[in-house]
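User: Is it possible to get a 3D structure for a protein together with its bound compound? The compound here is pyridoxal-5'-phosphate. I've pasted both below.
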Amino acid sequence: MNLFNVYPRFDIPITAAKGVYVYDDKNQKYLDLYGGHGVISIGHNHPHYVKRLKQQMEKISFYSNSVVMPIQEELSGFLSQQCGYSDYSLFLCNSGAEANENALKLASFYTNKRKIVSFKNSFHGRTAAALNITDNLSLSAPINLNNFPVEFIELNNKVQLLNSLKNEDVAAVIIEGIQGVGGLDSPTNDFLKYVSSCCDQYDALLIVDEVQSGYCRSGKFFAHQHSGVKADIITVAKGMGNGFPVAGIIIHPKIEAKYGMLGTTFGGNYLACAASIAVLEIIENEALLDNVRLVSDYVKNELATIKSISKIKGEGLMLGIELEAPIKDLQKELLYNYKIFTGSANNPNVLRILPPLTITVEEIELFIKALKMILK
Ligand code: PLP
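Assistant: Yes, that's possible. Here is the predicted structure of the complex:
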């Protein structure tokens, strides 16, 4: 049976990994500044993570949500300590798209409205509702079109925001903490505050999609916390399980749960919880937030000295390096000549950097040196 060929792939079979490095089948080492779409938060094969998962697997790997699972509460306890939303609740699911799907559903249940406000260049996933609020028509099949009304407005445009909310028919505004796939544009702190106050005024919920920008990647637990704003619903995935498929939505206490309102077979299984707890333990024990800030400052300062870089976007270790021209050849040169994995974005001129949060200045120096050699 052939694989259904939907992914353009680099012809490099990655067969092993450790820390910030991945290795191909010939044991060639690569510096991983992409973490498989920003998933690797605490580094590949961290010994504590591996141990936690092995220990859990020896006890029990799976049972469904038809029984109480204390490990889910252990996870929500750890998460609430670290993420600053201690009075909120957690619903566990399996992917970023599923998290957004459920967040939209909750907003619609709660407000009894159907319209959603989303942003130009946004990406929220590939399931039906998540696609409907993603600003990329080419990803939609005919059955995905016009599921429910969505207005796409420009990021940081207060006038458009107000116009879209003033009829009070909007269930939620959904915004990425930092746009990932789109090209690393961020809402300003001032704009996020405005969104939050408008949502309150016009009875809409504020959903922040932190699937890519969350879990300390931006230098705060959530990227939107740079603004001091509190969201009604936050969606998380990628870095949460360091590669184990797990996701969640963090829900304001005003939204009441009812049996059957949301559900999933695999969500919150024992292994997913063990992986997620290990990630949070490592984030805390290794002070990874401090590391993100330290390495980010170093990288930003070094990038600022390279003349052909026109803009440095993003926060922490979620960075976009914008050139005047497409980055495609640069990305290939970094990979094939310097053995460094990086990412791209919808904006063809942006190189996307999402290294493990454990990376050191010494490790990322290789990238800076390579960039300086290539871009001169
Ligand atoms: N939301 C954002 C901001 C993302 O970057 C992504 C994936 O890249 C998703 C949602 C979808 O996540 P998943 O691929 O786990 O469904």
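The domain at 68-285 is CATH 3.40.640.10 (Aspartate Aminotransferase; domain 2). Residues 96-111 form the longest helix (16 residues).
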